[in-house]
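hey
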């Protein structure tokens, strides 16, 4: 059973971290290099939403497997599960507050790239974009730390 649990822990974290790295290093820059800014923003927003959904599912699976295996919710108070919980919370905030508000602002502006910086909608959009990037970075760092703590060899119990 330990092998299955550890596999699921590594698989969920590895998938989430790998997808986040791929999104930030490959998808977003490539979209902005071949599409118009508004088209790229739409593609990035769509794929980010899907990344968030996948991350939320992965995080919940990680936490459930960890708690069920330990037969105690107290197992979630260890460093790795706490970091995964932070990842879930930050991803939830990013998806349902930041991205949702950005989508509403984008709809009001019609075109983000055609809206000049002094416009209050654009100022708000740019501020939320910075928050979004920082949230994604925090999720990535928390994920790498969680992976490190998960990879430690468990202590044997007497």
């Amino acid at each position: 059973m330990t092998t299955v649990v550890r596999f699921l822990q590594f698989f969920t974290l590895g998938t989430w971290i790998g997808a986040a790295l791929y999104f930030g290093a490959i998808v977003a820059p490539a979209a902005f290099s071949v599409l118009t800014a508004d088209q790229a923003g739409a593609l990035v927003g769509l794929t980010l939403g899907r990344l968030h959904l996948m991350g939320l599912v992965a995080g919940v699976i990680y936490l459930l497997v960890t708690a069920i295996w330990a037969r105690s919710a107290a197992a979630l108070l260890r460093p790795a599960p706490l970091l995964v919980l932070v990842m879930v919370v930050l991803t939830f905030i990013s998806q349902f507050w930041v991205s949702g508000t950005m989508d509403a602002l984008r709809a009001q502006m019609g075109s983000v790239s055609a809206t000049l910086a002094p416009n209050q909608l654009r100022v708000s959009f740019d501020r939320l974009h910075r928050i979004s990037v920082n949230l994604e970075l925090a999720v990535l760092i928390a994920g790498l730390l969680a992976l490190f703590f998960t990879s430690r060899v468990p202590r044997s119990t007497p």
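The two ends are 18 Å apart (CA to CA). The chain has four helices and no strands.
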